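$ ./design --mode recover --in tokens.txt
reading tokens...
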């Protein structure tokens, strides 16, 4: 997917919305889904979707209820990679198991020590813990009340036809962050299959220059033909090290091998995964 097209989608949708509402790697990482986003026509009024807009919103929020419930039941492996996208740049890679404690927070249990050959920046396990705690978007029925949705047209994501919505929080808060961006809803399952945007609050972000990432592109995969769960997140941003030219950084977070909490994460037996097919009836 071309970043320029995604940014164009976000900018066009935002304008429309405002007008209406005032070393080596630790191992190879699979590429993201090969979605190819077409340009959304810059027409202020795209016309209504084939089914009522509110019906789409009700269906995808209900699907989000089921997807979040399923997502919260699983632990999974996760690989985090930070790349310096410049001549002579390096990479930082670490992998582990993401699990949920009784307090509901996600944590990363490191499996292998980080591998790094970064040339211009330095990343540590403390940075990794911050990355793991980045918000994850689920626009459930309860969450949807905090947002305004604007239908901005249809778009093709590879073989999928999607309804595109601009999402904006109705108000900001000091105690939590809200999503602001674009979501893509599959016209068949009426489920969110991709999102692109940022998380905002009343407080200015204070991640520091080492963690500049703010705009996140999240791909989801179909889990057993029922749930679209987030498995691949990427973010591009820039920093300006002392006495250096602007440095392009890319963050990639890939999740796989989903297993129920009750299962031993070290067990090698057959387990359900995002690539498994639903059992025969």
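writing sequence...
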């Amino acid at each position: 997917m071309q970043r320029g097209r995604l940014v164009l989608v976000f900018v066009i949708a935002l304008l429309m919305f405002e007008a209406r509402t005032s070393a080596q790697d630790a191992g190879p990482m699979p590429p993201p889904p090969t979605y190819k986003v077409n340009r959304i026509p810059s027409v202020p009024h795209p016309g209504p979707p084939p089914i009522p807009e509110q019906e789409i919103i009700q269906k995808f929020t209900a699907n989000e209820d089921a997807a979040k419930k399923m997502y919260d039941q699983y632990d999974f492996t996760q690989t985090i990679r930070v790349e310096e996208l410049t001549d002579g740049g390096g990479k930082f890679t670490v992998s582990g198991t993401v699990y949920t404690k009784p307090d509901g927070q996600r944590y990363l249990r490191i499996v292998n020590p980080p591998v790094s050959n970064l040339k211009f920046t330095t990343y540590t396990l403390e940075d990794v813990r911050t990355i793991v705690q980045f918000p994850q978007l689920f626009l459930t029925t309860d969450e949807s009340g905090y947002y305004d949705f604007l239908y901005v047209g249809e778009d093709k994501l590879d073989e999928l036809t999607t309804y595109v919505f601009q999402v904006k929080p109705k108000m900001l808060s000091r105690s939590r962050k809200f999503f602001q961006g674009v979501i893509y809803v599959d016209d068949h399952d009426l489920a969110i299959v991709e999102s692109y945007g940022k998380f905002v609050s009343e407080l200015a972000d204070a991640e520091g220059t080492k963690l500049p990432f703010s705009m996140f592109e999240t791909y989801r995969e179909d889990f057993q033909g029922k749930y679209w769960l987030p498995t691949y997140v990427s973010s591009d941003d820039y920093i300006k090290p002392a006495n250096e030219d602007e440095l392009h950084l890319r963050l990639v977070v890939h999740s796989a091998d989903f297993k129920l909490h009750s299962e031993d994460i070290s067990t090698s037996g057959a387990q359900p995964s995002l690539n498994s097919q639903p059992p025969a009836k």
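exit 0
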